[in-house]
Write a structure and sequence with these properties.
Length: about 60
């Protein structure tokens, strides 16, 4: 258990350092990932709103 947790913490630390020092263009990858996440969130929000309006209009 401790070994897995330690490994996860090491991976998170290396990823944090990669973003801080922009190793391997990590900032661009994070920025692209955040843009994709925001797009997905907006899409899910619109779908949920449409579904909710559809349900409310039926009842």
């Amino acid at each position: 258990m401790f070994g897995r947790l330690f490994t996860l913490l090491i991976i998170l630390a290396v990823l944090s350092l990669a973003v801080m020092f922009n190793w391997f263009d990590a900032r661009e990858w994070v920025s692209a990932g955040l843009d994709w996440t925001q797009t997905m969130f907006e899409s899910l929000s619109k779908t949920g709103d449409r579904l909710q309006n559809s349900i409310e209009s039926k009842y």
